Every structure is written in structure tokens, then in C-alpha cells.
């Protein structure tokens, strides 16, 4: 029955009518992993370019016998919201489900596979791979969770003086010191003040606490903006290709059209504004009302860091074309090369003389990334500038429907934007922890990049920032044919083979979008440093064997 | 400009085409607070019955001069998603914005109003009104936030032995003990196991961890189900009237139709299945595909607790009519009367012999409610039964797009479903804290109920459960005329006057829906007990003066 259902949802997807928008990039019919076998015309839909998770049953419920008869229950696969079917999210897709299955196998029988553990390089989740949290941040969180111990003598023995002081400060900022109360819909005002002081220190331009919306990670903030901007499939959002699939998923769920622009792999995933303009014009000529431009800087999955001059062009482009600039800046603290530096788009825009009423700009930040990598805390914020009061009121209403984001995440967002300062008791240990993580990540990025570049048919741009490498693999025709014969995208085929042989989980490039006919995978740089040599060696051995097997 | 924008959004709302579905309840044209002045025909739309927050500018940004010129920015009020405009959320609407303004006034000048503080009775937010968190829960959360102190001697001096033990258990359930990592999209498996043991202890029927989706409070779970079920405005969701506005807001945001059924105030907000059936048939005759029935038990805003026999009828009704039963059970631990008891719908369905493949049932639970009232932690879950594997896969995908809910909230959800047991060091202090809160809430409910019933023209059903009273106020015609003259719903007019006179914030009944021509407000029972007499006295004085002023 499962197989039947999968076929049915696949056919539903295939038959769903879509808006046809052709693309003018020289190599540019963006298509799905399936369309490799069943090519769509160049005028195919923008959204259909990810590997079809919907068509691949995933996350089975262990308890449900696959032969259970659900025919008398009311919800059928062809009676759910088709936007849900349409939505795809490869970083937790089929490959991760296979990995979880293998992990279960290993639990039962440690010799069941040619490796002793699964290494999840599919997602930027540092602490899952052994990274330790920053002590100061956790001390403050614990004290805010249980303020009753703040006054106890023992507390001074096990917490730093400045974490105790900071916890008192934070409690004073919370009405009634109630860390268990819903906050203001945008987040606790005092914490937004602290975040703004951090933004001001970073940018050298003023920030306003009324512009901050604290959210459970960056994802809900992205959804909120898509929800606000997208009215129908005639509304388009310009997104980089490759892109982080949150964007394609969110656009699909809100029923809009993803308008792709290509990052140029040959120039280190460069963003060429003239190409973006071409894509914009093509979309407009097809009747698409393009509302916004998404820029991910540092890049995900691509790891590049934009030059300030390039950012200025992007700002001018959005200004001139009447686009909202949605700036995904969650990797702002993950920079690994001395010749690059992070500049927020707000700083760039303000430096160019554009003020509040000149450009509509949203900056997304998260506590999941950075050197702290506190993914599980689900903290984040968006800074919203250049929207008229009546639009802001609608944003406030949307935030209110979910009441508020979690308070621990709010507190943590304030901490990462305002960490210990010179003179604070924790300052030295804090900077030591931070610098150790960042310098280790830089070394890991370089080691993995070099290893990948040494493989036959693999080229890999450097990770200037973020947490990923996105190597391109030139697969032999025989491998492509083999993938075809099992109805899988060639890079998904490669990733699956890699997982089965090594236990290393990566995400096929088709999950992010890529120039048709090219194949990639995304691999995080996050395994602990002492594990990297073994990973490199496993990867190298696998790749060699794979190429030997399929060499034309 | 603000005023202009408000008028514009109001006119946009008024002109937006909607599906017309007439109702057959004897008193049943559900309409909005505005339609009181400008009555809609009986065939009016289901969604248009809340006081129009969208039309009332709220949450102004302090920093934005109201005369700033945003004309060159791209997003206009008539170019945003009309579903966002449509959505309303009264519990954080206009009246709360006024309250926040008054609070600012008091900060600047404590004598600026005839009261010295704002008492927020608009929302079930116990800790904001001074309720203390349950010690055991907070101890465990603090230890999980900062596990580095678990082994230290001082920790035993300031934490209970069972909180330390529980923290160790929880850490052992988290892969790599990484409380800072993204978890499985449905939440940490071990915590879902614990939650299931709590559900089993409650219901006496098995629960499956694969059926649990941990979420940031109950709201995202409700949104997920609406997103899954609603394809277009032709899809309807049966909701009680009065209802908690999360439902109307979520249905509006997902573009569906709210199909109302009325709770009968005369029988203590009774739910009459024959009436629900009538509404269902009417909606179907208008071409609405009704997908689900929402039941809130204990009731919000109405406070009634359903009898088991009534629940059985509801289960049979959903089974026979092919409806998903969406059971909002977040107040399951808030029962204040000895003659009523909470039964989960799953227990009721299983007791009737209905198994996994017989009925589609979703139960929503939250850590925000109960006696613990941990609203700010944003923990919750839904238990999903009776959906075919291919539908569950789509739910898993939706959960994956946001990666996971916050880990502290996940941990807390496991704690509230599995609190200390007899023999645990914390057991006595825990039960003392719990029982003190619950018995105090029961006394407060009774005191406020009696006080309200003693007022001229006010009748108030008892709060059997939940956190609210929802008194009906018979307003004099002169008051209704006065409200009309300032273009406000009469109950909103009353609530505004109450706030201005007493500092007490309540939500007008028009924010929840009510039988046309009746007026109510929702008031929480949450102010601390020693404050209740003063609140009763202020309320009584205000009401008397109001009635004297407007008596016909």
C-alpha cells in the first residue's frame, strides 16, 4: 500500500497544473531530479527542481503495520493540501531516513554495516557532532530557568560572577521576572534593546528594538515574510540556486513561485546582478509579480562570502526594482578566510545613504549557527526596516497569533549579540572557547576542501564562511545510467552509495537546485577535528571504488 | 496616514469576495462586531465574525514618525496577502495595545490614571500575574541547560536528588547528550516515550511515540493540521462559537472556511450534536467540504467540561460523517469542580472500541496551561492517530521544514506528563505546589463567578475548567447606541471603558464569536488570590457606574 500511495502522490504532483515560466540563463532549465529521466520542457515550473521527497515515503511510523487498512479514515493523499505535497525539504529527506534506519541496524547488530557509526553531515547541527556549548551562555540560561538559586551561596561556587550578574540583569528586564510568561509578541523589550546594542556595535548604525521580531529560530521569520508577501502563484520570490531548501519549501507552502537566479560556480559562487536582472525580467514577462530577493550571505550551501561592492549592487538593484531584500545572515559569525569579512546588508544600505524609508530590508539571524551552534534552543530574530506602519501592524498581528517565541531562545539571542566583554570574569574563557571553535572549523573546512579537490572528477570551491562544502562531482555516464535505472537523481544515487559504504550522510545537490547536468552534494564541516582524517580516508576510498566501478 | 491606511485595509476587507454560507441555527447569523452597525445578510461569510483587529491599527512602532513617507517602499497594504489582512486575533488586539499605552503612562506618571497598575486578564498567562513555577520542573530544566554542574558537590546542596536524577535520565535520552542540537523532527524519541507513558497512565490505553509531534506550544500544531487539511475556501472546519481565536486566525491564514456551531449558554455552554449536524449539512449544501471538527475541552473561553456521554456522541458523529476530530485538550489539568472530570477523546474513542484505523483524531496539549502555566517555554505536542502512513509522511515533512521544536519545551512537555511520583524526594513539595495552585484557582473562579453574577444584567456560567469566565452582559440600549456612535462593538466599548476606569484588561466577546445580539467578555481567573477582592470591588464599582450612566 505504501508503494501505491507513493505512486499516487507522485502522479498527483506530476499532474498538478503549474504556472509555466521559462528561464533565460544559458544553461537554465531548472528541473527536478525526476525530470532527468523524464525531461520537462524548458518552460517548466520554477518550483519543480528539488528531489522529490514527497514521492518517496519517509519517516514511517514503526507502529503502523504497512498492511493496516485506513480506507475508512477521511484523509487521503489526494485530499490534502496540494501545496503540502509540493513542498520538499531535502536536508531531512530520504537520505536521512535511510541513515536513521542504518543507525537502528547498528544498534541491533554493530557489525551489520561496514562502519560503526553514522556521521550526520547533512545538516548544520554542530552539537550533535560533539561541539560543546559556550559555558557562559549556558550558565545564564540555567540561572534564568531557575532563578531561585541566584541568591544561594553554592551558586557562586559553580557559576561565574558575570553569568550571575547577567541573569539578574535579564530578570530585571522581564516584567515580573516571569521567565515562564508569554512575552510581548515581538519578544521581551529589554532583550530587544540588548540585541540592538549588539547590532549597533556590529554595524555602526542605529538599531531600533521595535524593528526586532524574536522568533523560534530563523525559519518562522522566513515563513512570516513569505506569508505576508505571497498572494498567489503569480507572486514570485527571487532565490539563489543553489539555495537552502527552507526557501523553496516556504514558497511552495505559501503558494508562490520561486524565481531562480544562478550563483556562478566558476567564480566561487559569485552573484552577478546582471543575471539576476535577466531572471527578474523573464519572470515579469510571464506575468509574475516579483516581490522580493533572497540573498544568503555567507552562502548556504555554497559557503561564499559576498564582497561589499557586490552587496552595494544588490541593494541598488532591490531599490531600483522595488524588491524587498530578504537577507539570510545567520552565518554572520562563521567566516574562515582572512580576506573576507561579513557586512550586514543594513550596514551596507545605510553606508550608501539609504535610510528607513528608502529600502525594505529584512535581516534574519539565528542562535543555531555562529560558533555557538545552539540549534536546539530555537532562538532567532528578524530585523525589519523600511516597511510602512500599516504593514508592520500586520507583521505584529502575525507574530501575535503564535503569542511569542520561547523565552530561553529569546535570552540566548540577546546573549549571542552581546557576549562577555573585556573585564568580565568569563571574558577570557569565553573568547578561548569561541576562538577554538572558529579556528578549528576553519582548519576542518580547509582539510575537507583539499581532500575533495584531490578526488577524481571532483572540484570544490573553498568555504569562506557558513558550515558547508558543496563539491561538484563529474559522474561517469555509467553511474548516471545506473541512477536512471533505479529512478534516482545521479547525485542522490552517489550520496546513497556513500552512506551505505561509509556511514557519512550528505545531501544531494538536487535538494538545493543546481545547473542542470551538474551534480553536487552538500557536506558540513562539523565533525570533530580528530574525526576528520578518518572521514577523509573513508570518503577517498569510497570515491575511488565508485569511480572504478562506473568508469566509462 | 495611519488613519488612511486603516480605512484602506477596512475597505479591502469589506470588498474581498467571500464564500457565502448561510446558517440554520435559530439565532444563527454569525456576524462581526462591525456588522452590528452594518448588518450582513444571513448568508454572510463564516469567517467575518470577530472584531476587526486588522482594521484597527495596533502595535505602533514608537520610532516611526507617523508622517514618515514610505511611498517609495514596495510593500503596500493592498499588495500583501489578503489572508493576512483577514486574520484576526483579539486576545492580543486593540484592547491590549491600549493597556500597554496606559502602562507606559503609569510609568511616566503614576497618577495619570485612576488605578496604579494594569491587570492583564486578557490572556491565560499565569506567571505574568505572579504565579510561581513548579520547583521540580525548573530544577530539571536548569540542569539540562547546564549539565556541566551535574557532577559538582554544590549542586546537591541546591537541587533535589530526583531533579538531578531526572536530568541525568533525560540527558541519556538525548543522542550525544546534546541539548543544543536539533532533534528528530517530531522531538527527542526518549521524551516522546516518556510522554506516552504519561498518556497511558492517564487513559489506560496504549500510546505510541511515533504518534507524538512535539511543537513550540500547541499553536504550531494547530497550524500544521490546518495547513494539511485546507486546500481552498471550499474546505471547512467546524468550530465552536464562542471559540479560541487561534482557530479562526489559522483557518483564515490557510484560506479555509470556518463553519461555526453554537455552544448553548443556557445549558452551561452545552454542545448539542444535532445542532452541529445541522450546521454541517448547511455548509455541505453550500458546497463546503467539511474536513474536521474542532472541540475545545475544557472550553475556551467558555470553561465547560464535556460529559463523557457527550464526547461519545461527538466521536460517533466524526466517525459517521468522515470528519477529523481536532481535540484541543490543553486545559486537561484545569478542572475546578468535583462533579466533572477530564476524559481525553482518545480514551473515549478507544473505550467505544474504535481503534487506530477507525477514527482520525488529533489531541493538542501544551505546557502553557495546566497548573504549571509555563507559557514562555513554548512546549507542547499533538498526538496523531488514525492517519494513513502516506499522510503521516506529509506531517513529518511539514515538521521537518522547521527542523524541530525547542528542546527545553520538549523536556518540559515530558516533565508535565510524568511529574514526580510517590517516594521521589520532590514528591511532597511538588504535590503541595500543584494542589495549592489548583485549589486557589478553583476559589478564584468561584469568587469571580459569584461577583459577576451579582452585577446588574450580568449572568455568568461557572468555570468548570480552563482559566476563564465568559459572562454575558445585557447592555442598555443607550450603551449600545454610544458604542455605535464611536463605531465600536458594544462589548468592546464596555471592555475599553472597564480598562480606562480600573486597569483590568478583558477581551470582548466579539473576539471569540457569540450569538448575535448577545454581548460577553472573557476574563481570566488568574490574578493572585490576595488581589481578587480589590478586583471584584473595582469591577463592581465600574459596572454600577456604567449602568447608571447608560440605564435606559
TrEMBL record, chains A, B:
Reported cofactor(s): pyridoxal 5'-phosphate
InterPro entries linked to this entry: ALAT1/2-like, Aminotransferase_I/II_large, PyrdxlP-dep_Trfase, PyrdxlP-dep_Trfase_major, PyrdxlP-dep_Trfase_small
Short name of any one Pfam family annotated for the protein: Aminotran_1_2
Keywords assigned by UniProt, alphabetized: Aminotransferase, Pyridoxal phosphate, Transferase
Molecular function in Gene Ontology: L-alanine:2-oxoglutarate aminotransferase activity
Subunit structure: Homodimer.
Cited SUPFAM superfamilies: PLP-dependent transferases
Domain Aminotransferase class I/classII large: start-end pairs: 176-528
Pathway connected to this protein: Amino-acid degradation; L-alanine degradation via transaminase pathway; pyruvate from L-alanine: step 1/1; Photosynthesis; C4 acid pathway
Protein name: alanine transaminase
Enzyme Commission numbers on file: 2.6.1.2
First-level EC class: transferase
Family named by the database record: Belongs to the class-I pyridoxal-phosphate-dependent aminotransferase family. Alanine aminotransferase subfamily.
